[in-house]
Amino acid sequence: xxxxxxxxxxxxxxxxxxxxxxxxxxxxxxxxxxxxxxxxxxxxxxxxxxxxxxxxxxxxxxxxxxxxxxxxxxxxxxxxxxxxxxxxxxxxxxxxxxxxxxxxxxxxxxxxxxxxxxxxxxxxxxxxxxxxxxxxxxxxxxxxxxxxxxxxxxxxxxxxxxxxxxxxxxxxxxx
Length: 175
Hints:
The protein is mostly helical. Helices cover 57% and strands 0% of the residues. It has eight helices and no strands. Helix 7 packs antiparallel against helix 8 (160-170). The longest helix has 19 residues, at 12-30. The radius of gyration is 16 Å and the shape is globular.
C-alpha cells in the first residue's frame, strides 16, 4: 500500500484546500456563537486559501480585487468596489431577522454567492457559512456531496425558493 498518493484529476491546490477545509471546519466549530462579520469571513478565507496559488497572488484573506464571475451561470455578481457595503448589508439583514430557518439561510446563501466577495473559494466559504448558520439555529446540517452538487448549482442558478427546497431535501441524512 502506498501512502501520500493522489489519483484523479485534482490540482495540487485542490489537495491543499481539502486539508485547509479540515482546519476551517474546526475554526467554524470553535467560533459558533460568534456573529458573522467581515473579519470572520476574511478569517475563513485566509484559512481555506493558506499556501495555495491564491495565497501567492495576494488573494488570501481579502475581498476580491478583480471582477469575477460564477462559472456556469450568467448571474451578475458584485464588482470589487461594491463588496464591503453589500456584505455589511447582508450581515445586518441576517441579524435583524426574528427567526432563522432554512428559507432565510437559503436567501442569505444566494445573496452571498451573488456578491461573490472573494477572488475564488466563494462556494466553499458559503457552504461553511451554511454549516455555521444551521448549527447555531438548531437545524440539521446540510450535506452537499458529489451526488447532489449539480442539483445544488442548478438551484443556485434559479432562485432562493429552489435553493430552499434543495436545502430541505439535503438535511435528511443519518449520521
